[in-house]
Design a protein that fits this description.
Layout: E1 26-29, E2 32-35, E3 58-63, E4 66-72, H1 75-86, E5 93-97, H2 103-106, H3 109-112, E6 118-122, H4 125-134, H5 136-146, H6 161-164, E7 177-179, E8 182-187, E9 190-196, E10 205-209, E11 214-218, H7 239-252, E12 256-259, E13 265-266, H8 268-294, H9 299-305, H10 321-333, H11 351-357, H12 362-371, H13 376-389, H14 394-410, H15 414-432
Helix pairs in contact: 7-8, 8-10, 9-10, 11-13, 12-13, 12-14, 13-14, 14-15
The chain binds zinc ion (ZN).
Length: 433
């Protein structure tokens, strides 16, 4: 597997070759089971032709009157999840609870839906699907770049907006029950409680089962700093929503926390330790960004300077603190940076003039090559300048390719690697023309 670590992710990818053996569900006790997001190959079979696909966990809760499903993974992974969990219990599906409206959680609804199955979401879920559908073309391109796979594979078509919102028979996915703040319900003698816990998305919810002290926390916890801003593009994800929602879950005092990506977290102490650290890391980055904004610092300075103290370091295999700093900054303030020249658009238009002044791209490319070993980011910017003035300049393209390859080899962040690969594919295509 090329990924340094198959990160927990809103959309997680892994190489198909990792799933040679038949995966088994995790028995969580009290009739609860988890199908952990696992990799499937093209056609769902795995094998040599590794294809990265979106996946998340699917949970089954068995009750005396029928089953409850929490999240359904993406369309491809859901086939295996359905097979695996139906082998545990084939009782009727009474309800499907969707923690939020992302395609890697809603894409398998059709696998589970039966006549009479309730689909339960937050009341803002339909609007959140509409937002994604409105921008379906935009997200299709961005997802294909970001989630192109952890290895040098052709980009994989990510779930389209329509697919993300597809219902049981391919029509629009319409929940049958929604709620605003809290909603209790009982199935087969098991009491459930739904809580609105916005974070990764505004429609995000947590399912709580008091009797089992189990909290299904969706994508509000990862084993990494989250994407408070994701590079594929998103409306602002409010850091203080995450903090408040994590406090809501902590106040339940759970003994079992089930994220929709990654492994279950067991035990009061471990849960308290992990969720508190995660919450405090988000709060720290938020507060440092706000302080910097009020101190008059620009966004790039803060992206560079804000780091977590060692006791709050939760890793950056999925989200990046720097992207989140910018997400928080621009979420609060919007795009204008206070520089009059950026009011007028097309900031790259001056690059052609710089190339003319230097007598062509050669000297800029030479400087980029010299900087590559020590400062590849500045070197990358220099290739932007050279190629703006001379888009077909082969030495500039070759230098850019070398820089992107260097950055890819050093990166341990799954999303960053996706975008570096997208850049590599772009340069390779331009070199072939
Ligand atoms: Zn997800």
């Amino acid at each position: 597997m090329r990924l340094a670590r198959t990160a927990t992710a809103c959309i997680v990818f892994a190489a198909a070759s990792a799933s040679a053996q038949t995966p088994q569900p995790i028995d969580l006790g009290n009739g609860m089971y988890a199908a952990i997001g696992f990799a499937v190959g093209a056609g769902g079979g795995g094998g040599a032709t590794a294809v990265a696909v979106p996946q998340s966990n699917t949970f089954l809760i068995v009750t005396a009157d029928g089953n409850v499903i929490v999240d359904t993974s993406g369309p491809a992974a859901s086939v295996g999840h359905h097979r695996m969990l139906t082998a545990v219990s084939a009782a009727p599906i009474k309800a499907i609870v969707l923690t939020h409206g992302h395609g890697d959680h809603t894409g398998g609804v059709a696998q589970w839906h039966q006549s009479g199955t309730d689909v339960i979401t937050h009341s803002s879920f339909p609007e959140f699907l509409l937002y994604q559908r409105r921008l379906a073309g935009f997200f299709q391109n961005r997802n294909a770049a970001q989630f192109g796979g952890g290895s040098r594979l052709a980009p994989v078509a990510a779930p389209s907006g329509a697919r993300q919102g597809a219902g049981p028979t391919g029509q629009e996915l319409v929940p049958t029950k929604v709620f605003d703040r809290r909603m209790p319900f009982t199935i087969g003698g098991v009491e459930f409680e739904l809580l609105h816990t916005p974070g990764e998305t505004p429609d995000h919810i947590t399912l709580w089962i008091p009797k089992y002290r189990a909290a299904f926390i969706g994508d509000n916890y990862y084993d990494s700093f989250p994407n408070i801003y994701t590079l594929r593009g998103t409306r602002p994800r409010w850091a203080l929503d995450y903090v408040e929602s994590l406090n809501t879950v902590l106040a339940l005092d759970p003994e079992l926390v089930l994220p929709s990506h990654g492994q279950p977290i067991r035990g009061r102490d471990e849960i308290r330790r992990k969720l508190t650290k995660y919450r405090d890391a988000i709060q720290f980055v938020h507060d440092a960004t706000v302080k910097g904004m009020n101190d008059g610092k620009d966004v790039f300075t803060l992206m560079r300077d804000i780091t977590l103290p060692p006791d709050l370091d939760i890793g950056e295999t999925y989200g990046r603190i720097s992207w989140s700093v910018r997400g928080i900054y621009e979420g609060y303030a919007g795009w204008f940076d206070g520089n009059p020249s950026t009011m007028f658009g097309t900031p790259a238009s001056a690059y052609g003039e710089i190339v003319k002044l230097t007598g062509g791209a050669a000297s800029i490319v030479a400087r980029a090559r010299a900087l590559l070993p020590t400062d590849p980011i500045t070197a990358l910017h220099l290739t932007d300048i050279a190629l703006e003035g001379d888009p077909r300049n082969v030495p500039a393209l070759e230098t850019r390719l070398a820089i992107l390859n260097r950055l890819f080899e050093k990166s341990g962040n799954s999303n960053e690697r996706g975008w570096l690969q997208a850049g590599i594919r772009d340069v390779e295509a331009r070199l072939k023309r």
